[in-house]
Amino acid sequence: MPERRARKDAVRNRAAVFAAADTLFTDCESPDDVTMADIAAAAGVGKGTLFRAFGDRAGLIRALYAARLEPVEEAVEAGPPPLGPGTPPLQRVPALLDALLCFKLDNRHLALALEGSGSGSPYRAAHYERWHTLLRTMLEGLPGLPDSGFAAHALLAAVRADLVEHLAGEERVPREVMRSQLADCTAAFIGSPRDPE
Amino acid sequence: MPERRARKDAVRNRAAVFAAADTLFTDCESPDDVTMADIAAAAGVGKGTLFRAFGDRAGLIRALYAARLEPVEEAVEAGPPPLGPGTPPLQRVPALLDALLCFKLDNRHLALALEGSGSGSPYRAAHYERWHTLLRTMLEGLPGLPDSGFAAHALLAAVRADLVEHLAGEERVPREVMRSQLADCTAAFIGSPRDPE
DNA sequence: TGTAGAAGCGGACCCCGGGTCCGCATTCTA
DNA sequence: TAGAATGCGGACCCGGGGTCCGCTTCTACA
């Protein structure tokens, strides 16, 4: 299989771009005052290199996002309860949403950049599809719930990046408050730990 | 009060731009392949006129959106039940969400353009604030519900333009199906017509 | 180690869309 | 009807994403 090994400088440059972009997005005010030229400059690299490595802006952002997301996916796929598999939905659904919320809080600009990346709706991203499928599957096991596909969409919509950003940034809702509010809402929806009167 | 009357040609042109933009957005594939130059051309007007009348692209979109939304606001503020005032929250909340869903279905591109308009998050729009306040107020009267502010955000997130667009466009969910799914979800959340066991 | 040629580099360049500007036309006021 | 004020419009600017191609650097093979 003639998949030739990548050249050393190529991997080095790719890594440099990756690191530069990561810090730039972390430190910026808003994701779209981080320009491709900025990234190239910060990485000490030409624009051509950058586009060769990642295709386009969206590709770069996806790559960064995926890298940051990896630990979460790991934890969901093979981690311990309550996130990992083998946990009953009543605990796992809130745990998943909480994890996503925390992730977006920790990676605000990146998530914002991804979800708002031009015309590409967030709903075409591969990882969205995965969360949605997982969530829907879990919801299906729950009694008294409506169409689980739509419900999964609705729950995921509650942790969308720009909403999270708005709450954290504009309304200055502290992290823990937000987490508990989300937990309460989730509980109200899937109807678990509200003690039955 | 020296607010001089606007010139005849000015109002005429403003109207022309308005109409042209409206049809363009309605007929387009995606809101961002309708360009400001296109609108000006379609209205038979120079770009300068267009920008003078509406400030910038976002302003124009807001104006269009507001015009389309007006009937809905009317119905909510002073219409008959279940949308109008004086309806108990248990019916009015679902009615409001349903109305919003229908609105977004009927004005997909416009809503998409508004919510995705560049850096401006949907959460800064004036009308969002109004829906949120109204919804929160209604939710406050309901028993067993968590923080109504967050809950209101979450419910509104379920009818966001790009989600609606995705469901209607990509997944080809028919209008009535979507409405009933939303209704079911709302019911599950505010906990109304699930008959108590 | 030398060398051929592929793989990659980089920044000048292009394109396109939002937004501005200013000389000219139109409309209001006296 | 003269003059001022207001508005018109399209040439123009700017900035960012994306491309291109002559040159450099690495690798494979001897």
From TrEMBL, chains A, B:
Residues 35-54 bind DNA. Keywords: DNA-binding. Pfam families: TetR_N. The keyword Cell cycle does not apply. The keyword DNA-binding applies. Residues 11-72 form the HTH tetR-type domain. This is TetR/AcrR family transcriptional regulator. The lineage of its organism: Bacteria, Bacillati, Actinomycetota, Actinomycetes, Kitasatosporales.
